[in-house]
Amino acid sequence: MYITCLDLEGVLVPEIWIAFAEASGIPELKRTTRDEPDYDKLMNWRLGILKEHGLGLKEIQDTIAKIDPMPGAKEFLDELRSLSQTIIISDTFAQFAGPLMKNLGLPTIFCNSLEVAENGEITGFKMRCEKSKLTTVKALQSIGFETIAGGDSFNDLGMIQASKFGFLFRSTEQIKKDYPQYPAFEEYADLMKYLKECLAK
After folding, report:
1. Considering the domain boundaries, does residue 162 fall inside one?
2. Which residues have a catalytic role annotated?
């Protein structure tokens, strides 16, 4: 039995931090897991910038409220969920993901949580588990699932490599060059064709 594991940002919805960087006028916040493989380092750096500018959870949530899924993402996900058990495994946070999940038809998402002070300042973050994407895929495999996994960034590679079938979607040229063994897709229709072939095996 297969279960398909998808990344969220860059695959189904635009990158939250890039959208917030543009909304806040702080270009440094455009740095994502496509640029920095160490997620703890990246998040601590982001929190430092937020503190420096006096920005908190509300400001980010105001930006998220205006983010729509990528064109065709909901239709792709609806079709995939009709064919396969599907979980979104993301390094984002529950406080960010809620509105995005509504726009995607409320799929299952495994993500992390923020530590937020009463004044709305984001003071820290709590990862669900170490190497959460890889750990989740291995846990699913341990209870009898074969996994298919895909994403666009460095932090997706662990679950892609551990799965029976793995793919890249709208990834960077560097990641595609470094991992040529994984099929890389730019369009949902092409990805769906590939996933149907995997699910038939």
Report:
1. yes
2. 7, 9
